[in-house]
Amino acid sequence: MHHPMCDEVGKMRRPRRRTVTRDVRVWFTGCLMYVPQRLHFGGSSAQFQFARALLAFLLFCLAFEWLFSTPSLPRSLSRSLVSPQSACGKGGNNYQQDHHGRRYSLQNSSFCIGDWTSDCFPRVQGICFSSDKVRICGKQPNHGVGQKQQELPRFMRFNGEQLTVPVVKASCDEGWHWISGLSLVADQRFLPEGKPNPHHEAEKLIPALLLAQRYKGPNVSLHWFAAKSDVSVWAQGFLDAFNLLDKVRYHVLPSRTDDSICFEDAVLFSGPTQVCYIPDMETNAWLRARVLNHCSIPSLNASWPVTQAVIMDRNKGPRQLANKHEIGDLLGKILQVPVKHLLAGTGSFCDQVQEVSQDDFFVVPHGSQNVNFLFARPGAIVIEVFPYLFYNDALHNFTHATGIEVHPLMGLLPPGNMMMRFYSMFGWDICYNHVRWCKNYARRQAIYGDRFKLEQIIQSIQSQRSHGLN
Question: With CB atoms counted within 10 Å of each terminal CB, which end of the chain scores lower, N or C?
Fold first, then answer.
């Protein structure tokens, strides 16, 4: 017998258009009928009914536990809440330094920033972009002794993530359009059309900038397979701050009748990173100084006690702070300072930078707008609020060299959201790391900050600062 909702004990297929309550009821009833028969239960009718009753009791206990209790945090996450810190820069000393002591490595097969555990980007000798594939051609150099091997991406994305093109090893035509020298080449992976994402733009731009201006010199060219109109206001302002706005060459993927666009030597900025692209505090200070100078913003350190707290909500889209006014009341009560409400990601690049560089205490929802904290005052405090069942350490990682404090605050179960209550059965760790549709659903929900936990975090900060600790 095959039941459409219950394939195995406790394994539920993705539901169709039904309410959550009905889905649970159908699944529950189906399993009661299906499981004893799937187990080839024999015996009398009374024994069969007893088995069904026992199974019903066990399922009821599990359902009650899943739906009406808050899942506990995984141990690793609980530890990070007690002592927030980044995983960046925690490896050994297997990195190179230039004559200024800056940490990087431009190898035969990769460009790496920071230590052995940090971010690397693949380098290829001979690569061609066409309408249907990205060709890796020519003999690739061997990895040197002690060099870290960086895998090539299996695919790259273009046209606002609407086109996915495989990366394959194939021959290239010498008559195609070839670009010589070391080229830094980016695609539009993680940059969907109409949804600017400064965080993922920074993932590509900042490592390329460091290689072009900080490590290698002016003989490096920057290439982006994107339309200039697709680039966000933030990214254009960032490029302008480093005199690169008119130096980036934008490319359209060739049509089937056009020659491929080829690069003799290229570093690819496409795949996901650990967001550890700032290797050290000296590099972040250089980056911040250039940006603040471009925007005519004074460079200051944070002070304590703070004179104002800022709640910086997202200006649109999901993951807005649904209880930000209650959070504001709590901040004002504990810190005894005025609380200002702002919307992040609005205005010009310099407007966005100024919002994070003129205050010392912030509460923000998780989101790409937080990339601006690269330019925050050293010593500033940022409390990042996450949606229920969702968490990552991206902000910890890319700000690890800024000198700011980042404290995660887990969100509460949104009131009245039965789907999220149903997903509670997975718990934080399983939902985020193993069940993609649970993770993607959770990240799109409004955020309700836990005021009780927020008060504990602020009291801990006050205690540490009063003892000269940070």
Answer: N
